[in-house]
Amino acid sequence: VPDRLNLGAHHSGSGARPVADAKPVTDLRGPVTGAKIRRFTLTARPATITLGSGKQVEAWTFDGRAPGPTLRVRQGELVEVRLRNAMPDLGVTLHWHGYDVPVGEDGVAGVTQDAVRPGGEFVYRFPAEDAGSYWYHSHDLSDPAVRMGLYGMLVVGPAPAPEEDSAKSESPQQSPASESSAAEPPAGVSDHTVSVHVLGGVPTAAVDDRPPADGLAPLRVSPGTPVRLRVTGTDNAPRILGVSGAPYRIAAVDGRDLPAAREVTGERVRLAAGGRHDLTFTMPATPVLLSADDRADLGVLVTPGSGAAPPPASGPLLDVTAYGTGGTPDPGPFDREITWVLDRGPAVLDGVPTLAHTVNGAVWPNIPAPVVREGELVKITVANRGRDTHPMHPHGHHVLVLSRNGVPAGGPVWTDTFDVGPGEVWEVALRADNPGIWMSHCHDLGHAALGMTFHLAYE
Ligand code: C2O
Ligand code: CU
Fold first, then answer.
1. Angle at 439 between CA 438 and CA 445, to 5 degrees
2. What is the number of the ligand closest to the CA of 391?
3. Does residue 331 lie in a domain region?
4. Which of 69, 195, 285, 408 has a C-alpha 20 to 30 A away from that of 373?
5. Would you say the CB of residue 65 lies under 6 angstroms from ligand 1?
């Protein structure tokens, strides 16, 4: 399937080979000819970020912001992002976390491309096909890179209705060279990205493209308006999210809608490091609080204009694998079964004996890559024998949760980052439909750096 591989082979900058026969992007991929191109440029550079309170922190940023600019695109568009690296001394890439791009666009330094060196650039291109909430981050020395701020949100909105399909974003024929700006959020819905991140040691909550609040990020919404908060966990630790002041739904997990999401009141929900939950509610006449980690002073305060914040939600923790209804149909028979046993153990990393995080008893780069064939249905059993939580993140694919600790999933939940707690066993299914060599790792990026990184390979 050559058109799924290495679409982005246009390198430039240090060490790159020039592409002599560069064609217009629409010629590179047949099915998207005529698609609107949504173009962005992101420049990685150090910057001082001013938080909501006026406090300043040093960060590594895209375009001087952390989180970087929110990239909003529409289904059916072709996304083209030019990454420029203006960091003095750091390789940078862009990985589209949760967006199942063709492998050449996956942005994993050392696997799908070389890191973009200072002064260099790289152009990523992929068709926006799956609506949902995603994020992007650098994937070279990911642990410090993401912690320091090299990440941002990616939202793929549904395809525009024909009458909306105006001259807002140009077709390539009309003006091939102009930069598109981000797509508008859907009319009638108060639709926002939210990321909670400890930036420079300060817990923050960021809404859309506003500077991160080191406290409650304010959002004003008129009563009666449907609200969608696309919350992303960008740190190495899971987040406990709570919504108080209105009943709400978990409308989507990791970019995939949850069918028949039921309304809950006061429950809290656990968001894996790297995962996304879209929380929806109808704005009441009084304030709604999205709290992080049960704190009254961290999260988003949505108000109709005035009123005091309700106390943070303190209800039971909702298990999203049991949240849906109707059960998950058995997708088998499986063509292949894979087991990942997660643990902690001594290993030699970079020549240094370390207490590492292991998969099947080994550490990167010695964990044998499970091999699949295109089209296969693969069952993965993940057993955590250690004492740490591991948010497992296979690149390039979503997995369907079959069971958690022997309890079958309540309804279909597709995920790309799932928290396997100490002693837990998860069974998930994956359709091998995106050929390549894909990194898989724990999204506690400190654990990934301490061995828990391997690959899924297509034979
Ligand atoms: Cu969020 Cu391997 O990445
Ligand atoms: Cu881990």
1. 160
2. 2
3. no
4. 408
5. no
Mark whether 209 and 152 lie in a shared domain: no
Q: Are residues 435 and 363 in the same domain?
A: yes
CB of 455 closer than 6 angstroms to any ligand 1 atom = no
Which residue in the block uniquely carries the two structure tokens 């080191």?
Answer: 214
Phi, psi at residue 440, to the nearest 5°? -130, 140
Least reliable range by pLDDT among 5-9, 146-150, 161-165, 335-339 = 5-9
Is there a single domain that holds both residue 10 and residue 76?
yes
Residues 60 and 21 in one domain: yes
Question: Are the C-beta atoms of 115 and 93 separated by less than 8 Å?
Answer: yes
Could you tell me the distance, in angstroms and rounded to a whole number, from the CA of residue 120 to the centre of ligand 2?
32
Helix H, strand E, coil C: the string for 411-455 is CCCEECCEEECCCCEEEEEEECCCCCEEEEEECCHHHHHCCCEEE
Q: Any idea what the CATH number is for the domain that residue 35 is in?
A: 2.60.40.420
Nearest to residue 136, comparing CAs of 66, 39, 50, 212?
66
**The domain containing residue 353 runs over which residues?**
336-458
Contacts of 352 (CB under 8 A, 6+ apart): none
Ligand at shortest distance from the CA of 146: 1
Number of structural domains (the chain) is 3
Does the beta carbon of 439 sit less than 6 angstroms from any atom of ligand 1? Answer: yes
Pair 307, 438 in one domain = no
Q: Give pLDDT tens digits for 245-277.
A: 999 999 999 999 997 789 999 999 999 999 999
